[in-house]
Amino acid sequence: MREASFVKQNKEKWIVFEKALNNNVKINPDDLASYYIQLTNDLAYAQTYYPESKTLLYLNSLASQAHQKIYITKKESKNKIVSFWRDEFPLFFRQYHKTLLHTFLIFMAAVIIGAVSTLNDDSFVRLILGDGYVNMTIENIEKGEPMAVYKSGSNIGSFLGITINNIRVAIIAFAFGVFFSVGTIYVLFSNGIMLGAFITFFYNYGILEKTSTVWLHGTIEISVIVIAGCAGLVMGNSFLFPKTYSRRVAFMKGAKDGLKIVVSTIPFFIIAGFIEGFITRYGEQMPWFLAYGIIFLSLFVIVYYYIIYPILLNKAVNRSVPKLQLA
């Protein structure tokens, strides 16, 4: 790799690290150590391929500052849990927006496949959702209660069961990324095809509007499954595309980053479980403006936290620090 390409590929990462060392950005010791490991890998690469270069001198200086910083930094910071969701995660997640976009496109492709297949083959929905569920739903539709399934069970029991199941699906979507991202893509496709078949099933019966009840909790639930899939792709792609790192180091970093993304989804799964357990069952009796208000508010919260807020926060940080000069 040419030196200019090496600098261009890693410059943003070095800038973030330099900001932390200059106390312009708060960073916890664990992340500081992670940046240091990445920096030393870059330093070793530069020593091998760009000896006597200004890039090597710069990385040497940065590594020396980092070494001193790590050993004088206190171990814990105040309100660590709050700072994780408010500052640390949004700043960190900005780098994976492109991966999130790819994950979303994969999922939507599966939704379209599920929808088109169900439109053209009535038996397809039975293959995907199962005869038991389809027969039960048809019976409920004939009774005039197509969403009766969401009224069964106790509120608390439904809330706990749904939340645990959703978190399990998210962990599976992440963990399957270990199979070179193929496992995660399979999970995304399975859930996407299921969603497409489900929506089209109601469309075929002329009651598509009734699915708004499902979207009360489904907006967050489906969105966060896509984000968990993003975590799986982050881990799997780190092994497939290690960049300047060894595959072992790249995979360890990808696994850690992916796990951090999964952890960020837990509060949202709890919220989705709460809505499904306590609110969805009353969706058919709810005024339309209240139901759609919940749906659009849920969508806004997800889009703002995972897309808009990280962009705004990173821009605010970048404005506060002068640009790095490597030449």
Distance separating the two termini: 18 Å
Helix content: over 70%
- How are helices and strands ordered from N to C? HHHHHHHHHHHH
Quaternary structure state of the chains depicted: single chain
* Average pLDDT figure: 85
Question: Strand portion, in percent?
Answer: under 5%
Q: Helix/strand/pairing class, anyone? A: mainly alpha
Number of strands: 0
Number of helices: 12
* Major sheet summary line: none
Count of discrete structural domains: 2
Categorize the overall geometry: elongated
Segments where pLDDT lies below 50 for 5+ residues? 73-77, 321-327
CA radius of gyration is 24 Å
Transmembrane segments: 100-119, 156-179, 186-208, 214-240, 261-283, 289-313
InterPro entries: SpoIIM-like (IPR002798)
Keywords: Membrane, Transmembrane, Transmembrane helix
